[in-house]
Amino acid sequence: MIKNIIKLGWKNVWRNPTRSGVVIIAVLLGTWAGVFLSAFFTGMVQGYLEDQFHLTVPHIEISHPEFEDLYNPEYYIPQAENVLTNLKEKPYTTDLSTQSLASGLAQSARNSYGVTIRGIVPDSTHSVENYLINGSMPGEQYRNPVIIGSDLAERLGLALKSRMVLNFQDTNGNITGGAFQVVGIFDSFSSVFDEGNVFVNRKDVNNLMGLDQQVHSIHLTLSDFSKADKRASQLQKEFPDLNITTWGEAAPELKYTYEMTDLMMYIVMIIIIIALVFSIINTMLMAVLERTRELGMLRAVGMNKSRVFSMVLYETIFLTMVGTPAGLFLSWLTISYYNSTGIDLGAFAEGMNAYGLRTVIYPSLPPIYYLNITLLIAVAALLSAMYPAWKTLQLNPVEAIRKMN
Amino acid sequence: MPVIETHGLTKVYNPDKVPVHALNGVDLTIEKGEFTAIVGPSGSGKTTLLNIIGGLDTPTEGKTIIQQTELSSLSDRELVNFRLHHIGFVFQAYNLIPVLTAVENVSFVMQMQGRPSKECRKKSISLLKEVGLADKIDKRPTELSGGQQQRVAVARALASKPDFVLADEPTANLDSVSSADLLDLMLKLNEKEEMTFVFSTHDQRVIDRARRVVTLVDGKIDKDEVR
User: Fold this and answer.
1) Over chain A, what HEC string results?
2) Straight-line distance from the first to the last Cα atom of chain B, in angstroms, rounded to the nearest whole number
3) Given pLDDT bands bounded at 50, 70 and 90, which one contains residue A405?
4) Does residue A193 carry a pLDDT above 50?
5) Span A251-277, pLDDT tens digits
6) What Å distances lie between residue A223 and A232, A355, A368, CA to CA?
7) pLDDT tens for each residue of B208-225
């Protein structure tokens, strides 16, 4: 009998094709909008996180425990080579890089500005290279080469081949400095980063600080950044004398953004689903109330309450579940398309760069979310079916027959 | 053995406010194979009596016994099941399921009884042939005339192999030709299958052809005439 009830429920959905069609299209569009919006947010946040990890915050940063507070150059990582060798052997390590760091003042003839001076190995490819808009990475062709951000260049009135002075503290606590030549200008996603960071050869900055091959910071890139906490605590046991900082500790706002992505996505979906639920309840209630006589007749001839209830339940589920797969498929198509082409929000570049966001968003959604959203809609369909189905249980066959005659 | 027995049936609507006495002690016995018309003016209690006999309503006092089962002793669920297996209903407005074809409408009641699909379809086709709709089995109600729809409703009522068929004003929405055809059909089934029919009607042409006419006035049996 269940088969027949299901069959009848399905046929009832098409009793009023226009009305059912409107609800099905609403479910389809609602699902599409919700999923696509979620993918858009996920893509935006993923891009944001990737950029931050590439340039500003490593998954795990290793430094001397005393270094972080005052950027005192004497607190370099002791026996960094051993640490690096050890880290290279870890299965979860995908990339390693080192930096000498100094906090100092960048000066030009026109202006001065506080910056972080990052000493990198000239032959290593650094992610800042991806953002070069002018010139090249600091190499051996010039003495004391530096690359600076476009915002800093503008602030200090510098151009390619301009000279500037960097002042910072050496290992003896004295102020030291040197003249550097701008060999490259980068323009990243973040104007804050572009204004506050310069890249020089590690050898040059170490010479001025009174250091040799020492480094202040090791950047470790993990195969899965979400496991940074676990890896950090493992490393802390191995290197108890070093400071192991995860990206979440270094940039709590990033962690918050990451954790909020899921929540935001589900909130968006739930809002859309609530709107759909009311639309479905409204339609099903109309469908049930206009069939009072027929439902009364069914009860009179011997259809028990649970069968009438399940018939209305199936109708509602069909109404919802026809639009859902179509909506999910449409979402998948749209997401796949824009995931390869990207959505160019260049018109809002200024505002987005100020927040460190990319201007081209690549929407993406892990497959598990499709399943979760389907389950969410299925639960919503069941919930929205309850009230109309319950209304049928209140039906008195005698009343229905009275209406009939 | 009687198919239907009622003893002292009374029904009072709105007992606490403005009481309306729809039935005032109706004692009625209907034997198997009878073709009985319940007649009377509007408000005489015809529909109330049919509803109580059909287990759709409960009397204020008195009892209804169908095939030795007292309906008041049954729970809601048992009563629904009892109706499904023992009583056939024909309604004034036909009330077929519009999304199902004629054969599916007839099969539906049998399927609710849990009978196998193939058997249901075979039996439905045979019933539709019997009511003269062999060429309409795959038509939906909207494709049938009022008379044809009511014939499908009769086939549906018979599909569950009921002890009797209750029909509330079955010809009220039909023209005279369709009414006569339907009555012929019901009489044929009554004679051939010995099916018991109890129906309420205002239609004099129907009353003229009934074998027993029970007249209700103010909720009481005024006349019980066997022809």
Assistant:
1) CHHHHHHHHHHHHCCCHHHHHHHHHHHHHHHHHHHHHHHHHHHHHHHHHHHHHHHHCCCEEEECCCHHHHCCCCCCCCCHHHHHHHHHCCCCEEEEEEEEEEEEEEECCCCEEEEEEEEECCCCCCHHHHHEEEECCCCCCCCCEEEEEHHHHHHHCCCCCCEEEEEEECCCCCEEEEEEEEEEEECCCCHHHHHHEEEEEHHHHHHHHCCCCCCCEEEEEECCHHHHHHHHHHHHHHCCCCEEEEHHHHCHHHHHHHHHHHHHHHHHHHHHHHHHHHHHHHHHHHHHHCCHHHHHHHHHHCCCHHHHHHHHHHHHHHHHHHHHHHHHHHHHHHHHHHHHHCEECHHHHHHHHHCCCCCEECCCCCHHHHHHHHHHHHHHHHHHHHHHHHHHHCCCHHHHHHHHC
2) 20
3) very low
4) yes
5) 898 888 888 888 888 888 888 888 888
6) 13, 26, 20
7) 989 999 999 999 999 999
In this predicted complex, what is the ipTM? 0.86
Q: Annotate B153-206 with three-state secondary structure.
A: HHHHHHHCCCCEEEEECCCCCCCHHHHHHHHHHHHHHHHHHCCEEEEECCCHHH
Encode pLDDT of A102-134 as tens digits: 999 999 999 999 999 999 987 666 778 888 999
Paired residues of A142 in beta bridges:
none
Q: Closest residue of A to B99, CA-based?
A: A11
Amino acid found at B160? S
Contacts of A294 in chain B (CB under 8 A): 95, 97-98
Contact A15 B83 (CB under 8 A): no
Cα-to-chain-centroid distance, residue A270: 19
User: Token pair of A143, please?
Assistant: 């003495």
Name the band, by pLDDT with cuts 50, 70 and 90, for residue A378. Answer: confident
Which of B51, B77, B100 is nearest residue A401 as measured by Cβ atoms?
B51
By C-alpha distance, which of B56, B57, B63 is closest to B8? Answer: B63
pLDDT at residue B1, as a whole number: 78
Of A47-56, A332-341, B123-132, B189-198, where does mean pLDDT reach its minimum? A47-56
Contact assignment for B56 to A293 by CB distance below 8 Å:
no
Domain ranges of chain A: 2-53+255-404, 60-250
Using alpha carbons, select from A214, A227, A222 the residue that is nearest to residue A101.
A214
Instruction: Write down the pLDDT at residue A125.
Output: 65
Tokens of A38: 């979620």
Query: Are the CB atoms for A43 and A256 separated by under 8 Å?
Result: no
Among chain B residues, CA nearest to A14: B99
Tokens of A235: 């490393």
Domain of B67: which CATH number? 3.40.50.300
Q: Residue B56 is nearest to which of A8, A298, A300, comparing CB atoms? A: A300
- pLDDT computed for residue A253 by the predictor: 87
Tell which of A12, A309, A401 to mutate to test the B interface (max B CBs under 10 Å).
A401
Are residues B64 and B101 in contact, defined by beta-carbon separation less than 8 angstroms?
Answer: no
Range of the domain at B32: 2-226
Structural tokens at position B62: 């008195």
A304/chain B closest Cα distance in angstroms: 6
How many domains, chain B? 1
Which range is least confidently modeled, A326-335, A348-357, B148-157, B192-201? Answer: A348-357
- The three-point CA angle B157-A14-A34 to 5° equals 140
